[in-house]
Specification:
Blueprint (H helix, E strand, L loop, with lengths): L1 E5 L5 H11 L5 E7 L4 E6 L5 H21 L1
Antiparallel strand pairs: 1-3, 2-3
């Protein structure tokens, strides 16, 4: 199952970094972020708990953003 979420990313590079990290979250089959439309499309693995997966995606995104700010 796929769902699309509205997001806010500051730049295309941030979107790419978050996308690459979030793709590795357990329960994510595929994920893409469009900086231009400010949307994230997530395809979940069969049987995955969408709320739990999205909570983990959010944690991963915040971690990546905080690391990016340090640079």
């Amino acid at each position: 199952m796929s769902k699309t979420f509205k997001i806010e990313v500051d730049c295309a590079n941030c979107a790419n970094l978050v996308e690459e990290a979030a793709k590795k979250v357990e329960g994510v089959k595929d994920l893409s972020i469009s900086f231009m439309t400010q949307k994230m499309k997530v395809t979940f693995e069969d049987g995955a708990d969408e709320k739990e997966v999205m909570a983990n995606v959010l944690k991963k995104a915040k971690k990546v953003e905080s690391e990016f700010e340090i640079l």
